[in-house]
Amino acid sequence: MIYLVGKTVLVAFASLFPVINPVGTSLIFLTLTETADPQTRKILARKVALNTIAFLTVLLLIGTYLLAVFGISVPIIQAAGGLVLAGMGWKLINQDPGESDSKNLASTSAAQSYVDKIFYPLTFPITVGPGGIAVVLTLSAHTRQHADWMSAAERQGGAFIGIVLMGLVVYLSFIYADSLVKKLGPAGTKALMRMVAFLVICIGAEISWNGIRTLITLK
Question: How many domains are there within the chain?
Answer without folding.
Answer: 1
